[in-house]
């Protein structure tokens, strides 16, 4: 900005616009020494370094993993002095700002080096003004006028506060300051990093007892907001964060050390959107620490050592091996490369290309003399002869393993086996162009270098029967940070079938990109230029076998040629075995030394059979296969490698699909440990599980006496006979009004001409069966919206006049056929409600949030765990999941309530708020669309519709401390625990509360968690008093122990072979293999506090039906399933609502 614009804020802070002030003042870069650098940096190194600093500054928060970073660096800037003589003795400041962001949050990292702050004030309006650090919201528009928004200042008017920036910290690292400047979905504050010198009691945390009872945390109220906010550490409040979105547009400009980049920055800073375009020369200024060897050593090769440096760590190959440390190979060993070739190549003037569709490419290199061989298969005669000039197709493998001259290194020694090579060939004089792109993917399990090659373009024709001769050539490689380039012009001679020859040429340009370690001396030792010398080039196209072959000798050395090397180790004429290293001595002296994995005198080397020498080298249930120079472990049949890649574990035939059970539509496979499994027919089918046949459910009494039963695969339907009304389970000569019809008719007045709708009032519309139409409209306003089966509006679906929302049918058959996955209606996702990816997940509660861990098979994908929902200052106890609408329900006790939110994104919505004291356990009947919960203060169990309406108490006697509760919808059963210390018990009843009975009462302590597995019909619980996990079959009454010695379980859920529970002592989610009876894994969230309820969010709803799943079971209000039918119940507050109660079956 110009001086006139600067005058609006210099010395007049805060400004009238949004500002992040790393160190604001009137700064000058005109003397040629001061610089301001700017770049977007989304590299892995930069993002990991940013995450490390931020997570260290906020140790109690969720782990932050940014996706973008913008880096601005002020280097040697001075204070602006209008009449400066430029005497060179001016004081200079150096500091840096990094804005790191992801979808839901943004942070500012400000770095002040200890000698980087040399002046603390700058001139403004004729006086010296102390510099500012802070965050300004700028002007905020009101209804009639704008006012100055908040200004969060990180410094004061005291110059000592500026000097302190380089000496103090809020991140645990001197001179590094971190601020949360935006957290979705709103913005209310700027939050400073928490790792400071403040006393420990400054940190406020929720308090809980060590006992069984949940305590309510006490929160302090916030003071009134003032105009200028000093940003100091205070406990994190639910800020409504801003999000920084960076759109990257690169303008590539050739240059030696800089490039021009432009960014369009759209930043919502303190709730004010700011858009600006910046173009700068980009320099590498800010280096990032990648961590230490303590937690990264496993990223190094097994033949490498990890070494820490001040700025990070690097991997270095051990003596006898070479590579980049991530990948190391034995010196002297021949190397092999395998891959595929894809693409389209035109020949001459042909209008049709020759296509490569996964053609095989194989290469072999004798490393101790630099000789390389390459072959590509299935090359048709229309193209093969014309590819002969392109020996460089395999030239990169020659460069990677070239014979090294003294002081020089081949490609693999520098960059390893993971890189991308892009080459452009221009043939002269016809200007045909061919692009070669090769992705080198590292060393595979066979110790071969893997590569994928793509060819696109046109080559001049070489007539069939011609041969090509390529003279020796050299090529200069230029090395820089993560980039290698080379270019050359090559001649070749074509010998035509008539005996004549033609000399042709092409120009060659290539770039090789890679990732290298930025620490230590590895890059400093890399020479900026090296020369690849290639001779003894041989090319041949074998038309009979459709093979093209290349062979050449490769040496890497000095661009100036250097002194001629006479030592055979450098000329390749040494006679060592192909599996040996040539060790040079004085003059022409040398020794041959067998490579690792071989024995011999170096002239002749023999493979060591590691499998014979150490039969147990691969461990249990594994087979050792010897290979040249090494060995390979494979698991026996029925086993596979576990997560560590070394231990062989049993294959779950159910999970892998290798079982012989009937198809999933008819049978269920249940893994029982080892290599065993059980096949069982699904409800509605009979058989041995391997062959299942449909059961004809149309037995007498299944439907109403005035209904007809129709058998279907795995189920049945009932339909009232002509002249009768109902759902088939209940039929009447007089049609009973449905909930929708009762609702509609209660609003229609009876006038002299019949029912007439009241003016300006919404009246629902019902379908031919009396159910609510999925789309409802207001006849007066023209608004339309979607409703659920109870007529409740689905949030976010309301449309204006003239438009119609897309509403999903309420038919339960649609939910079954589509796995219970509704279309994404509703509001767009809130950033604090993170939509879950597809698949099955674990959802668990931890104080003020609900987190998820995805499941891959039965294994927890811990690296993908994250918070789904943030509810600061709340204590969430129970969680339940509705697989039909993909909705999570939870109980919380700070302001007792039951709420819900869609895991596909949407506003958290309170379902029940009144008449609750301590709601804890919660469960959903996804078929009957009802919600059950326990209240440990009111000592009762209640049920309600999923929208919170139609509440009814079903159990209110003989309860002391009811906690866990679960449903078995297909069988109409309810189960719950009571941790009454004097008489703990586990009980069951039908879903209407009838047929209540005690299942387990002996040898119980504190039965906190309860889960039911519909596949095995097993009811399992975790007891914090006996420290055991046990199961029982409710119908048989048998009881068995799964595991003992668990510490303090709270919530529990099951999926397949595993039971997962939350543990208060371990602050972890623990997985237990219930068939093996042992712990298999655990997950500890970054925030170490008590974990409460846990549930399984199924990818698809479990199979099964109950009588309430169709048309609400014919009930006017609550439909509660029983094993033989259903009960129609009225809510407790049913007064004048036309409710009809019916008990039991039909």
UniProtKB/TrEMBL annotation:
It comes from the Eukaryota. Disulfide bonds join 777-784. Residues 565-606, 607-649, 650-693, 694-732 form the EGF-like domain. Residues 22-184 form the NIDO domain. Its main location: secreted. Gene3D superfamilies: Green fluorescent protein, Laminin, Thyroglobulin type-1, TolB, C-terminal domain. GO terms for biological process: canonical Wnt signaling pathway; cell-matrix adhesion; epithelial cell differentiation. Residues 333-566 form the Nidogen G2 beta-barrel domain. Keywords: Basement membrane, Calcium, Cell adhesion, Disulfide bond, EGF-like domain, Extracellular matrix, Glycoprotein, Repeat, Secreted, Signal. It is found in: Secreted, Extracellular space, Extracellular matrix, Basement membrane. GO terms for cellular component: basement membrane; plasma membrane. LDL-receptor class B repeats lie at residues 886-928, 929-971, 972-1016. GO terms for molecular function: calcium ion binding; Wnt receptor activity; Wnt-protein binding. Residues 737-807 form the Thyroglobulin type-1 domain. SMART domains: EGF (SM00181), EGF_CA (SM00179), G2F (SM00682), LY (SM00135), NIDO (SM00539), TY (SM00211). InterPro entries: 6-blade_b-propeller_TolB-like, Cueball_EGF_LRP_Nidogen, EGF, EGF-like_Ca-bd_dom, EGF-type_Asp/Asn_hydroxyl_site, EGF_Ca-bd_CS, G2_nidogen/fibulin_G2F, GFP. This is Nidogen 1. The gene is NID1.
């Amino acid at each position: 900005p110009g001086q006139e614009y600067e005058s609006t804020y210099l010395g007049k802070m805060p400004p009238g616009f949004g500002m992040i002030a790393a160190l604001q003042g009137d700064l000058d870069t005109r003397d040629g020494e001061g610089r301001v650098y700017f770049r977007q940096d989304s590299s892995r190194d930069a993002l990991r370094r940013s995450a490390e600093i931020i997570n260290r500054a906020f140790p109690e928060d969720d782990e932050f993993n940014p996706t973008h970073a913008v880096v601005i660096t002020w280097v040697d800037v001075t204070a602006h002095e209008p009449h400066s003589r430029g005497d060179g003795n001016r004081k200079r400041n150096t500091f840096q700002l990094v804005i790191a962001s992801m979808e839901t949050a943004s942070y500012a990292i400000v770095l002040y080096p200890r000698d980087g702050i040399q002046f603390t004030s700058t001139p403004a309006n004729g006086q010296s003004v102390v510099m500012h650090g802070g965050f300004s919201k700028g002007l905020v528009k009101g209804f009639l006028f704008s006012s100055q928004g908040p200004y969060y200042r990180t410094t004061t008017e005291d110059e000592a506060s500026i000097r302190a920036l380089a000496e103090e910290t809020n991140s645990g690292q001197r001179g590094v300051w971190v601020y949360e400047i935006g957290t979705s979905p709103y913005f209310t504050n700027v939050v400073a990093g928490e790792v400071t010198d403040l006393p420990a009691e400054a940190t406020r945390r929720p308090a809980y007892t060590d006992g069984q009872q949940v305590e309510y945390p006490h929160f302090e109220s916030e003071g009134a907001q003032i105009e200028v906010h000093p940003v100091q550490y205070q406990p994190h409040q639910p800020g409504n964060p801003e999000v920084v979105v960076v759109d990257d547009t690169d303008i590539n400009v050739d240059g030696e050390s800089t490039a021009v980049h432009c960014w369009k920055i759209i930043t919502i800073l303190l709730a004010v959107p700011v858009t600006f375009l910046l173009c700068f020369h980009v320099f590498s200024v800010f280096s990032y620490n990648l961590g230490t060897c303590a937690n990264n050593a496993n990223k190094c090769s097994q033949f490498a050592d990890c070494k820490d440096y001040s700025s990070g760590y690097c991997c270095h190959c051990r003596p006898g091996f070479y590579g980049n440390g991530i990948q190391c190979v034995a010196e002297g060993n021949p190397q092999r490369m395998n891959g595929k070739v894809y693409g389209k190549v035109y020949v001459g003037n042909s209008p049709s290309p020759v296509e490569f569709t996964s053609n095989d490419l194989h290469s072999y290199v004798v490393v101790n003399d630099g000789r390389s061989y390459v072959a590509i298969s299935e090359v048709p005669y229309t193209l093969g002869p014309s590819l002969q000039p392109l020996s460089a197709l395999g030239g990169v493998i020659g460069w990677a393993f070239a014979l090294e001259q003294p002081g020089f290194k081949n490609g693999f020694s520098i960059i390893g086996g993971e890189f991308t090579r892009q080459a452009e060939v221009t043939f002269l004089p016809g200007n045909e162009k061919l692009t070669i792109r090769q992705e080198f993917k590292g060393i595979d399990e066979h110790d071969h270098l893997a590569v994928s090659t793509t060819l696109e373009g046109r080559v001049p024709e070489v007539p069939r029967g011609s041969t090509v001769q390529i003279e020796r050539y050299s090529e200069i490689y230029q090395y820089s940070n993560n980039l290698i380039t080379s270019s050359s012009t090559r001649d070749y001679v074509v010998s035509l079938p008539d005996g004549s020859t033609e000399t042709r040429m092409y120009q060659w340009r290539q770039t090789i990109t890679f990732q290298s370690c930025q620490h230590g001396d590895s890059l400093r030792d890399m020479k900026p230029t090296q020369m690849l010398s290639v001779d003894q080039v041989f090319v041949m196209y074998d038309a009979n076998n459709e093979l093209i072959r290349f062979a050449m000798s490769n040496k890497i050395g000095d661009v100036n040629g250097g002194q001629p090397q006479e030592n055979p180790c450098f000329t390749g004429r040494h006679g060592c075995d192909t599996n040996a290293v040539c060790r040079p001595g004085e003059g022409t002296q040398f020794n041959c030394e067998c490579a690792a994995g071989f024995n011999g005198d170096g002239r002749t080397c023999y493979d060591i059979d590691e499998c014979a020498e150490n039969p147990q080298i691969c461990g249990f249930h594994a087979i050792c296969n010897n290979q040249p120079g090494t060995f390979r472990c494979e698991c026996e049949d029925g086993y596979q490698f576990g997560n560590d890649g070394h231990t062989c574990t049993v294959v779950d035939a159910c999970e892998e699909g290798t079982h012989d059970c009937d198809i999933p539509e008819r049978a269920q496979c249940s893994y029982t440990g080892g290599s065993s499994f059980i096949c069982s027919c699904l409800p509605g089918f009979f058989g041995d599980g391997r062959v299942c046949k449909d059961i004809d459910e149309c037995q007498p009494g299944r439907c109403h006496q005035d209904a007809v039963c129709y058998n279907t695969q795995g189920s049945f339907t009932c339909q009232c006979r002509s002249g009768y009304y109902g759902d088939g389970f209940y039929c009447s000569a007089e049609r009973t009004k449905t909930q929708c019809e009762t609702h509609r008719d209660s609003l229609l007045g009876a006038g002299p001409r019949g029912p007439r709708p009241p003016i300006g009032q919404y009246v629902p519309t019902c379908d031919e069966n009396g159910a609510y139409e999925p789309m409802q409209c207001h006849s007066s306003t023209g608004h339309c919206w979607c409703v659920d089966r109870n007529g409740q509006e689905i949030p976010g679906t309301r449309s204006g006049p003239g438009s119609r929302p897309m509403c999903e049918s309420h038919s339960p058959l649609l939910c079954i056929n589509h796995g219970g996955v509704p279309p994404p209606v509703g509001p767009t996702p809130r950033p604090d409600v993170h939509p879950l990816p597809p698949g099955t997940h674990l959802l668990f509660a931890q104080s003020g949030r609900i987190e998820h861990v995805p499941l891959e098979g039965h294994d927890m994908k811990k690296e993908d765990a994250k918070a789904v929902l943030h509810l600061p200052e709340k204590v969430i106890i129970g969680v339940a999941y509705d697989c039909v609408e993909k909705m999570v329900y939870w109980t919380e006790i700070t302001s007792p309530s039951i709420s819900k939110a869609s895991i596909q994104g949407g506003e958290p919505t309170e379902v029940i708020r009144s008449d609750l004291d301590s709601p804890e356990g919660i469960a959903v009947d996804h078929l009957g669309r009802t919600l059950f919960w326990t209240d440990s203060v009111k000592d009762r169990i209640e049920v309600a519709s999923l929208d919170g309406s139609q509440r009814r108490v079903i159990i209110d006697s003989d309860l002391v401390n009811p906690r866990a509760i679960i449903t078995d919808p297909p069988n109409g059963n309810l189960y719950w625990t009571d941790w009454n210390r004097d008489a703990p018990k586990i009980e069951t009843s039908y879903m209407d509360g009838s047929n209540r009975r005690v299942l387990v009462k002996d040898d119980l302590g504190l039965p906190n968690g309860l889960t039911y597995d519909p596949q095995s019909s097993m009811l399992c619980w975790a007891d914090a008093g006996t420290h055991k996990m046990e199961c029982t079959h409710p119908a048989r009454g048998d009881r068995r122990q799964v595991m003992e010695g668990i510490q303090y379980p709270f919530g529990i859920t099951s999926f397949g072979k595993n039971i997962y529970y939350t543990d208060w002592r371990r602050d972890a989610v623990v997985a237990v293999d219930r068939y093996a009876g042992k712990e298999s894994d655990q997950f500890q969230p970054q925030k170490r506090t008590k974990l409460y309820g846990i549930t399984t969010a199924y990818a698809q709803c479990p199979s099964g039906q109950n009588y309430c799943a169709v048309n609400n079971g014919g009930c006017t209000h609550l439909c509660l399933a029983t094993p033989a039918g259903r009960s129609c119940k009225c809510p407790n507050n049913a007064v004048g609502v036309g409710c009809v109660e019916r008990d039991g079956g039909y």
